[in-house]
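Posting for a labmate who doesn't have an account.
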Amino acid sequence: MRWLLLFAAVLAALLVVPGALAFEATTLDVTITPSGAAEVVMTYDLNLLERFGVYAAIAAPGPALEKALGAVAGRKVRVREVGPDGARFVVPKFATVAHGRDGTVYTTPAVDFRVFGPSLDRYWFGRFVSPDFSPAVTTLTFPDGHREQFDDRTDLPAVTHRA
């Protein structure tokens, strides 16, 4: 019983220090499908306390992530997988697709990653997390295999590519 009280006291002390936890996005891979959907794989780092906080606060993080991403994206997002090191999800109709005589033109919108931070505020642990949603490497891949890479950016710029 004493170890449980000690654990609870240590955990409580760590959680009351604002900014003590820091979610950090490491990579973001966005693959555009021929229909314009985006298949997204994001990897991130969570320390042990963050993992405990997220999974204690959200028994099923997939639906919570789906709701948060959908609210920010302004459209339905389908989460395929979410875990302690990463998430996979699909954003339908992410890119506009225009078919013409000279090929197909894909245009992706600009995305500011900083808008995702406030979505954490709705959870009890939100005030304790200092999120960094700017991945070290962001890769955008089009259906023909063409790739664009962006390093340490807080946004994904709009990109137009003819395939």
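Reply:
Got it, the structure tokens are right above this. The first strand starts at residue 24 and ends at 32.
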